[in-house]
Amino acid sequence: MNRTLDKLRRRGPRLALVASALLVAAGLSAPAALAADDYTQSVTQLSSTQLQLNFTPTTPALYVDVHYTGVPGVGQQNVRMVNGSGTWRTTVSGLSTGNTLDYWFTYEKSGPQYDTPHFSYTVGGSSTTVAAPTFSPPGGTYSAGQTVTISSATSGATIRYTVDGSTPTASSTLYSGPISVPNSRTVNAIALKSGSTTSAVSSATYTIGTQAGCPTQSDTPNFGPNVRIFDPGMSAATIQAQLDTDFNNQKDTLTAQMADRRVAHLFKPGTYNNVHDNVGFYTSVAGLGQNPGDVLINGDVTVDAFNASDNGVALQNFWRSAENMAVNPSGGNERWAVAQAAPFRRMDVRGGLQLYPASYGFASGGYIADTKVAGQAASVSQQQWYTRDSQLGSWNGGVWNMVFSGTSGAPATTFPNPPETTLATTPVSRDVPYLYVDGTGKYRVFLPSLRTNASGPSWANGSTPGTSAPMSQFYVVKSGDTAASINNALAAGCNLFFTPGVYHLNQTLNVTRANTTILGIGYPTLVPDNGVNAMQVSDVDGVRLKGLLFDAGTTNSQALLTVGQSGSSASHASNPTTVQDVFFRIGGAIAGKATNSLIVNSANTIIDHIWAWRADHGNAGTYGWNTNTADTGLVVNGANVTATGLFVEHYQKYQVIWNGQGGKTIFFQNEMPYDVPNQASWNAPSGVAGYAAYKVASNVTSHEAWGLGSYCFFDTNPAVSSYHAFEVPNTSGVRFHSLLSVSLNYRGTITHVINDTGGVTPSGTVPVNVVSYP
């Protein structure tokens, strides 16, 4: 967030190497290996300038090729390895301390050829990290007990495991052969090797036997003390008093921004007169009708630069939302002056919509979806904005990057002057699950249908298409729940409804059942403790995640959220997993650490509005280059993944790494890290200065993106530079539209926008624009 304007079959072995190299050069890949126990691989450091790469296939191979990058001054190398007693070896020279080698293997197995995932090794580093264990069969639901094999791709590694859901340590049970899983349980494992860093924790949840489904929950649940439920029979004064009390608690940028207080305002169907809901931090405001018009607010739902300390700007107005209601604004215009992580969804604004503070100060949002605005939507001082599947009376304004898809009333594409980019439709979308009250007073969760080439709100011609599920199928998570109780509910077949609160997790939440819905209100915050990964979603159909904040714990997690297991390849085109209004924070409230925030391995996943943020400010002692450490915000390995509304900021390496084929991004906003101490700390493995904000892997042959901005503000050391903001393969199937880079207050520079195209960022906080690439 910018606060700185205010301050992938070969015929024979002889042809295999050439064919393999051509495949790689063309960005095509052979089928991925079915299991990591096909092989082991390792690196031996021979000297300060030489490494030996080792690959031992389980089934004897006719050939093994290795591909690598990272030798200074040398491009990608594709080498036939030498077989010695079943282990294939190659020596890499020309390295020096600090160089990072990125490498992967192509190997023959019983005729077909396979590719491995990528691995990396840093020369002279203190240690390598042991590959995390994998499970065969994977976690899931089985009619009978299973015999489970656990393995690590790291040669010589030992494995320790637990079966009670606890986090394994070096003193946990030693894995020595397949283990029996006779009944439902979660197996966690780590891999260790002397001289190397212990792997991340891997988890697999096994549900054994025929399941009756979720034990019946209440259809009129107790949502706990942090959920306010209003109905039209209440007096306006009573409602307003509660709204004002909550706002006063959640208002202040200096004290409430990193506090633990969470709240939701839910309005039952009906009309509410003279209601004015000023929306503070960690506050969700939503109507409980099946459609937006079922709840009418004659009044306001407002976000502004509320505090004297804001100095008239809205650059820190994070973590608040409005959803599923009609508003007849008291002054003719609704005001929603926000920055990141503040979605405005399923709203019927019967007037205008002002997306800037009353002071006309800067704002750094934002996101609208499935919404109607009868009048003009005005961004004015908003630096960037994305509007999806909506209907506007008109649009006015824009500073750097205004993007629209499937939105009537949106301006034509005129980027860069004005800086507006419009797609007639959204290629694939699915609106969020939401809570509502039916005609009998029972609570249900509506599950909208998948849309392709959508335009306009899903409810424009009546009710949103879809199905609904009763709350009897949802386990309501509230204060006192633990990772164990939540996992038990998931294993029993329940969906989850998270109420506002902060939830510490001492084990990974394992989502293994297809079509599981996990819905949060009031910014429920999941904090992984002791280095566990917060949540793992299996490679299954139709999981919906909405309304969660993942806040990294003080012991490093390998990932906060992972969708699909590594190597996932099933198609989910007809029923994808959706990740919507899901936010990630590293530092700020606590000194959090996580190598990656979101890893997407499942094909066809829809990422619809995320903000992954490594904090640049917050509580004392919670942020700094060596404090809140985090490599990458988003890693996409799955094929045909779509991102609509992608905000990723301040990570210490690549902000986004896209390895999957067929990806699409509509709108991307990024700031590089503010606190880079010096250039040597921030040079990419390729040897160029800095890490690109958005990197598409060299083997990718199909990817398209629209409306992307990356900004630098190297405040700690303005001498730092980045060679480019976007790094992509030069191939006709990889296409980018409407890109820009900016140096904020001329603190550091970005030399090119994309690859070698686009000039160096000038002074004056002036964008460098590229209309299309290539």
TrEMBL record:
Top-level lineage group: Bacteria
GO molecular function, one term: carbohydrate binding
Position of the signal peptide: 1-35
This protein's UniProt keywords: Signal
Domain CBM56: 29-123
Protein name (Swiss-Prot/TrEMBL): Chitobiase/beta-hexosaminidase C-terminal domain-containing protein
Species in which this protein is naturally found: Amycolatopsis iheyensis
